[in-house]
Amino acid sequence: MSEMQQDMRQHGPTPSSVVVLHGGPGGAGEIEPFAQELGRRGHAVLEPFQTERSVDGQVAQLRDQIERYCAPPAVVIGWSWGAWLGCLLAASHPALLRTLILVGSGPFDARYTGAIKTTKASRLTDEERVELAALRPQDGDPNQVHRFIELNDVSDTFARDASPIPQVRFDAAIHKAVWTEADAMRKSGALLQALSAIRCPVVALHGDYDPRPAEGVRLPLQAALPAATFTLLEHCGHKPWQEVHASAPFYRAVEAAIG
Asked: Which of 6, 57, 94, 221 lies most in the core, judged by the most C-beta atoms within 10 Å?
């Protein structure tokens, strides 16, 4: 069985004490470079892949993965969609988490989402916008997925380093089912309710160049959890670990939060 067919990868020693959650939903593997680097720095890292096609299903699957491969409580680091998944896990299974770190989270309140697509499109050339619209990553072709990520990196990144794009297994069925449900939770306020139920320390890190507005994370987070900390990273987009100017302060902030 190849690594990408399993439901997880581990970096560093075992059992794992740090869990790194990918985005998407349905984009298994995109956060691998970050998880690998934490492993090289001596942390015991679990990189789980969520395969369930519902929000509750993904939370339950993640709970099972942490119980199997970690020695809870663990530090959970959620990137993009994974930030929301980490919040939902923390709200429903508090004993599993020591600290929750949110990286590049989507806005918790739907009022902050209006300009995201416009901002992303404005950072592409006319040719890139046409090419992006024609791509069909949902078909699962690795070349299409790779190019889709590459073009999104253009609009999401302030100054990308020279690291290669990792192999990503994108599952369109997972994405459609889970994102439809998660977006409805944001619109209804259920996501904010879950945020208010979190009891572990929460640290949020967000790039100032990320098309997802920082205020859509900071303001709802601090209203729901006044003790949470929020750090805005300068010259930084959606993936801080691959940013030329921001990766060093990003890793310092993450390692400080891990403790």
From this structure: 221
What is the fold, at CATH topology level, of the domain defined by 3-258?
Answer: Rossmann fold (3.40.50)
Q: For residue 54, how far is the Cα from the chain centroid?
A: 17
Give the closest residue to 83 by CA, choosing from 173, 170, 167, 207. Answer: 207
Q: How is the chain split into domains, by residue range?
A: 3-258
Q: Give me the mean pLDDT over the 121-147 stretch.
A: 94
Enumerate residues 6+ apart whose C-beta is below 8 A from 41: 251, 255
The pair of three-digit structure tokens given for residue 100, joined into one six-digit string: 């929750």
pLDDT, residue 2, reads 33
* CA–CA–CA angle 51, 57, 63 (5° rounding): 90
Amino acid sitting at position 110? A
Q: How many residues does the chain have?
A: 259
CA distance readout (Å), 144 to 4, 18, 55: 18, 31, 26
**Over residues 27-45, mean pLDDT:** 96
Q: How far apart are CA 247 and CA 236, in angstroms?
A: 8
pTM: 0.96
Strand partners, 45: 11, 18
